[in-house]
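Please check the following for our workbook:

***
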Amino acid sequence: MKTTMTWWWAGAPFILLASVIASVMGTPEVREDVGGMFGPAALISAVAAPAMGFTVALVGRRQQARRRFAIVGAVSGVPVLLFLVFGVLLAECPDGHHC
């Protein structure tokens, strides 16, 4: 189970990369659809996989797996936190809009 959760977590950057490639190469409709699907999927994968892996390791009393998922969660937490702070909380407002 820990291998499955680790691969799920490792796949999150590739999901995000797929959305970036599709938005660069696609039409505006494709950019909107793909960004709306793949962006949240990558964020959910980066957060849910370490949390689920840590929970399974905690219930199964597997010390080494708990350590692994604690590290994976810390590694995932930094970019997710930066995205939330700079992408959502401190995002610039377009001209004429009040945030």
